Amino acid sequence: MKKILHLTIFLALVAAIAGAALGLANSLTAPVIANNELKAEKENLVAIYPDVPDSAFSQVEKDVSDTIEKIFKVEGKGYVFKMKVSGYKDGTSFLVALDDKGTVIDYVAISNGDTQGLGTKVTEEPFRESLKGKDATSDEILNDTISGATVSSRPVVEGIQEAAKYQADNLK
Question: CA-CA distance, 40 to 97, in Å (whole number)?
Fold first, then answer.
């Protein structure tokens, strides 16, 4: 009985020390990890704003909804939304930059796991160019789906509309 009590106390002590060590390690590394994540994101953000210095980007929100993963404020430019939408197969991850009025400044596809050919057209330049300058708060942008790839392109366009609505309601 005495041996079991000693082992129980020893195990509790080891668990407490290990938990404290993990907590300390997490508190020391969390800022570094967050900074590295932001640095990696900035590489993608530069695709939209190549002439803007890194210091102009700041993360505003994280995990807003199922589709809005992150929101970045770009000093003097507006907001960039990192989105993940479902599609025919794996969906599309992309960035969309909106000005203060909800106009699409730019769109950059990060990844697409949909059918090669039709589904991947959302990553191509003609689709990107068709979105630029469109009012994301209106239904006009819904006309920018790709014929034959509606299952891939409609979620992207609806995601852009969701970002514009979130911006209008929460980021003014």
Answer: 17
89 to 1, 75, 105, 114, 151: CA distances (angstroms): 59, 36, 27, 5, 9
C-alpha to C-alpha distance for 61 and 109, rounded to whole angstroms: 20
- Count of other CB atoms within 10 angstroms of residue 14: 10
C-alpha–C-alpha distance, residues 163 and 84, integer Å:
11
Check residue 16 and give its pLDDT. 93
The per-residue pLDDT of the chain, averaged, comes to 81
Report CA torsion sign: 37, 98, 149, 64.
Answer: positive
Contact 156, 92 (CB under 8 A): yes
Closest by alpha carbon to 108, among 133, 85, 82? 82
AA identity, residue 137: T
- Alpha-carbon gap, residue 48 to 104, rounded angstroms: 11
Query: What is the average per-residue pLDDT within 135-156?
Result: 65
- H helix runs in 46-124, sequence order: none
Which class for 61: exposed (0-12), middle (13-18), buried (19 or more C-beta within 10 A)? middle
**For residue 18, pLDDT beyond 80:** yes
Contact 96, 156 (CB under 8 A): no
